[in-house]
Amino acid sequence: MIRQLDSLPEGLLKLNADQLYKKIDNHTLVHLEGKIKRPVFISILQHGDEHTGWDALRDYLNNHKQGLHRSISILFGNVQAARHNVRSLDNQPDFNRSWPNTFFKQEYPVAKTMQEITEIMKELNPFASVDIHNNSGRNPHYSGINVLNKDFINLASLFSDTMIYFTSPYGIQSGAFAPFCPSVTVECGLSGASDGTEQTHTFLELLMEQTNLSDVPGILEHQKVYKIIATVKVKPEIDISYKQHDHAFMLTKDLDVLNFHEINSGEVFGQLCSKLEEQECMPFIVTDENGNDVTDTYFEVRLNKIVSKTKFIPSMITQKISAIRQDCLCYIMQRINLDKYI
Ligand SMILES: [Zn+2]
User: Fold this and answer.
1) Which pTM does this prediction carry?
2) pLDDT surpassing 70 at residue 143
3) Are 111 and 173 in contact (CB under 8 A)?
4) CATH number for position 133
């Protein structure tokens, strides 16, 4: 059973993300009523070390203590992981891979919870759905959408001119809500950075004022839209590091400066130790949207270096080894033209 509340627990707006566990449980849905009844759904803290969603929402709610313009349904994600400032606890699946999807049914408890939340929200016919995240590398703040139509693009544009269209991974929140309302994932840069919090707060203010997402004047002119075409993972058995000491594969220092820049062939992603060099070992596995292995299209071993083999635009390269292990090293994108979608 999902715990649902119709007001915030007393004193919650004074707490930081790592203190929320004192007053609220994982997966609590709070429905706050505003003048316009059709709610905006806001999901925060699906990853416990990504605090900007709570920081910005708290600012928004503190700003509107006299009354909300529109109803809001808030999903508190992983407040237990937030307590320890980690993405998830050791025994937990990734919450944002556990939502219903059209490709396979997941039966574990968190997936059933997400299924139930999706059903509850679908009944409420949300005006829009927003899932707020941070990433650990240097990226522009951008929004992610799973459907290319005007409502989704307009919603994403309220946050940023830079957006990514993606269809995998499966089991993410914005994908689960996309069949019944415009939905977006916003990536607000480094957790806790004030520019990301301000941008997200501004986005929430703008969004709550909208009456119709298919018509947001003047917004469709400057977007850069990218499509994710492949995911780069490091093989789990390969020992990796960014630091210069004895590891099997050393990633290039400051690799995340490449995010959202078009790189040419020959860009060095890292260096193999002598043992792996002898084996001409490729430490990456690159898969396309359908899960096919496309490593050979994008990377090659040149002497002891791993280099790009073609032009592409990487995103979400992170310098955090734990994030590489739990998620991926980066995504490979191409720029797309919006004209045929709007
Ligand atoms: Zn996240």
Assistant:
1) 0.88
2) yes
3) no
4) 3.40.630.10
